[in-house]
Amino acid sequence: MTSVDRWLLPDGVEELLPAQAAQVEALRRQLLDLYKRWGYELVIPPMLEYTESLLVGLGSDIDLLTFRVTDQLTGRMMGLRADMTPQAARIDAHSLGRDGPVRLCYAGSVLHSKPKKPLASRSPIQLGAELYGDNSPASDLEIICLMLETLRVAGLDGITLDTGHVAIYRAVIKAAKLNGEQEARYFDILQRKAKTELLEFVASLAVDDSVAGHLLVLNELHGGSDVLVKGRKVFADIPEAIDAIASLEQLTETLAQRIPDLKFYFDLAELRGYHYHTGVVFSALVREHGQALASGGRYDDIGQVFGRARPATGFSIDLKALLGLLPSLTESAAIFAPYDSSPAQWQFVQSLRESGEKVICGLPGQDADAACDRVVRKVKEQWCVVSLN
To answer: Which of 77, 122, 190, 338 lies at a 20 to 30 A Cα distance from 65?
Structure first.
């Protein structure tokens, strides 16, 4: 590396300069205060853990995203966290060990060995909330409402809620009796929504027309509320799928009553996080952002590897991605205090700071800069603040 490019950062790794850093920190505090008012307790998990605990419960995706290092004390493999969800699950199941509902929230940097999506950051600031110990629809409703309130408090509107239920896919797979290889291929095709490839795949299977119809139609069931009506008709002979659709109907009906201007999008083949989600999955979309801005879902029993299987639901959001959608904040102007060794001036400056003012104490020979619109001056033996204009 030459001296010319020593300033380069790795691809997908960003730094936040003062204005951005101040805005992110203000937003982080505002949202954590929101979660506190909802009864969510803040936890601060470590940046790295042994991979045995860090990589459990979230499938192979998290494994591929995780940086690994060797612990110089023990020789064991450790990982830099790529997602704080399993850490929160460990805290609930083992560190706290409480019975009944537990509400936790967190905010911190995570690192990805590769971008999760094109142009995505490899160093997101993840903020999220998790609700453990309750498997009722009320928990899913609370978490979704908190996610939507997060975006509202941040200043976003025109939100569309994208919802699905992994039990529908699992019921279709079970009814079709696909083997492991066939299921893996079907899963891949649905992820890419490759219609022509899906037709060829289903034609190659030795299944009756009803099963083939289920496998084909699942790829088409995305859009408005009419999707749920169609789903009830085509999956009428699969009780597990009907139950999942009914839970989506109940959930969105309640959400529409609480938030009348909320838009809905349904995707019954939504398989994001399929390997660990167990029920409803959801994400929040806004016009200005081409991908899901916040996402979550139900992931029951993730705590089993830590000694206690607990129902769980939650969501997370990247504060850096959120920052890109918000207008820049105008920093409040400061007061400039010229260099003076007087104890009286120091006491006056401190009183201003305690009252909430931002005061910059000048150094010898330093003048007020553009960040200041007022100055501390001595008038008639009294220190006071006067305008620079």
So the answer is: 190
DSSP percent split of the chain into helix, strand, coil, nearest 5: 40, 20, 40
Contact 334, 372 (CB under 8 A): yes
Percent of the chain whose pLDDT exceeds 90: 70
Element (H, E) at 86: helix 85-90
Best CA proximity match to 337, nearest among 326, 321, 329, 348: 348
The answer to whether residues 96 and 87 touch, using CB atoms and an 8 Å cutoff, is no
Express each pLDDT in 277-319 by its tens digit: 889 999 999 987 778 899 999 988 777 777 788 999 999 999 9
- Give the predicted TM-score (pTM) of the model: 0.91
In a domain, 290, yes or no: no
Domain limits for position 144: 8-155+295-331
147 Cβ partners below 8 Å, 6+ apart?
Answer: 129, 282, 284, 294, 296, 315, 317
123 token code pair: 């160093």
C-alpha–C-alpha distance, residues 109 and 40, integer Å? 19
Please check whether residues 253 and 347 belong to one and the same domain.
no
